[in-house]
């Protein structure tokens, strides 16, 4: 399912007035954010969109800080770190906790994080998700500018008007969604490559069974799998076997 939010020019969404903030907060439930940008307008749009998403607790292309934080009923603040900290100190951590009226807690830094990242851990309602920056209208800018934009992290350059690079955009979107395509096969027949089962990366044979029919897992005996997830093809596997992209599966019932 794709959710389209209004463009930057429609200011009520991005001005904080009315219910604009609530509308953009819907993006918190998404699996990936596609930020459509006009390649002819520089970085103004990107900076504005990133700022608005940050304001509703969405962190783009970032992983959750590896910080252990647990409030306690007493005992003061216990601070430790397993790495050398260059951005935070014990005194700064205590000041931040006091600002949030927290005077008893256990804090353990497992990586060198910034004060803002530590605040995100305290607040606890941040969402970390991948974002793909898509620059459109590349047919209206120079080749040097296209090359510069294409080399930026998490960026794809396209032209909808001239249908340039759209196939690569679909490939990157599939990669960012972390989806896996599984094909099924009936006994004595060729695999059905026209109707695939789409699952999350890391899905097991049990997930495939549930997707086909909710009662199939209870009737499962074994499965034959062809593809990169097996040591040889076909390989007889159980429910816990992890499937990989474009594997073929044949399920045998009891």
From TrEMBL:
Keyword tRNA-binding: no
Record Pfam families: MMR_HSR1_Xtn, TGS
PROSITE patterns registered for this protein in UniProt: G_OBG, TGS
Keyword Nucleotide-binding: yes
InterPro entries: Beta-grasp_dom_sf, DRG, G_OBG, GTP-binding_2, P-loop_NTPase, TGS, TGS-like
Keywords for this protein: GTP-binding, Nucleotide-binding
Limits of the TGS domain: 178-253
Residue span(s) of domain OBG-type G: 1-178
Record lineage: Eukaryota, Metazoa, Chordata, Craniata, Vertebrata
Organism the protein comes from: Crypturellus undulatus
GO function terms (MF aspect): GTP binding; GTPase activity
Official protein name in the record: DRG2 protein
Organism domain of life: Eukaryota
